[in-house]
Design goal:
alpha/beta, Rossmann fold, 9 helices, 47% helix, globular
């Protein structure tokens, strides 16, 4: 069990990559705090894997402080922080509203900053932070200006944090997934006029001709969080089926 004796906080863990990672961490022996803005989703995942949960808006510093205090109460210290909370919106710089830009940046970038700021002091014996960036930080994506900018910022922040905290034995890395199946796509399929065509288009984005499953990204996060990656810090691990190789 690769995380036996470890404690972990995972944000955005109510569904998708976050939920898959929380379940994998629990199976590997970690004590887990499931964090999500959706209280019901966080509670459901926590119940399924035998973990604790808390509803937290990662863009709200007061809420993040409460989350960190709960982790300290539950665990005493934190060994692993996975900053996974985030979302995307459509739009170019011309069509994106300023309020929508600010709201996305508050979750995708400020959330990483706030959670790291208030959890790092709990990493009293060192630790590992894994941020969820995206392969679009390297290649861009049309009609997703705010999302691409936010994930580029996460990648840059990851490298900076790795330098700032290496002397405390805190490793900071990021995973950069390609297109990964999620409940978001399930909802689209419910009303899409051509569901088969939609799925085929998603699968066609990568040379491997399929999208990732959440567990495949969770495996990469697990490696970065575990002692198996003990000499990795400041790394951006791309897991995208070859999309960025095109």
């Amino acid at each position: 069990m690769r995380l036996m004796g470890k404690t972990a906080i995972l944000t955005g863990a109510g569904a998708g990559i976050g939920a898959a990672t929380a379940a994998m961490f629990a199976r590997e022996g970690a004590k887990v705090l499931v964090v999500d803005r959706d209280e019901a989703a966080a509670g459901r995942v926590a119940s399924e894997i035998g973990a604790a949960s808390i509803a937290t808006d990662v863009s709200d510093e007061a809420a993040v402080k409460t989350m960190a205090s709960k982790a300290a109460e539950l665990f005493g210290r934190v060994d692993i922080l996975v900053n996974n909370a985030g979302y995307g919106i459509r739009g170019t710089v011309l069509t994106t509203e300023a309020a929508d830009w600010d709201a996305l940046m508050a979750v995708n970038v400020k959330g990483v900053f706030l959670c790291s700021k208030h959890v790092i002091p709990l990493m009293t014996t060192g630790g590992a932070i894994v941020n969820t960036a995206s392969n679009v930080a390297n290649v861009g994506l049309a009609d997703r200006a705010a999302y691409v900018a936010s994930k580029g910022a996460v990648a840059a922040l990851t490298r900076s944090m790795a330098l700032d905290h290496a002397d405390r034995n805190i490793r900071v890395n990021a995973v950069a997934p390609g297109t990964t199946w999620s409940s978001y796509f399930d909802k689209i399929l419910e009303t899409h006029p051509d569901p088969d065509g939609f799925v085929a288009a998603l699968n066609g984005r990568a040379p491997m001709k399929r999208v990732a499953q959440p567990d495949e990204i969770a495996q990469a996060i697990l490696w970065l969080a575990s002692d198996e990656s003990s000499y990795a810090t400041g790394s951006i691990l791309t897991v995208d089926g070859g999309m960025t190789a095109w």
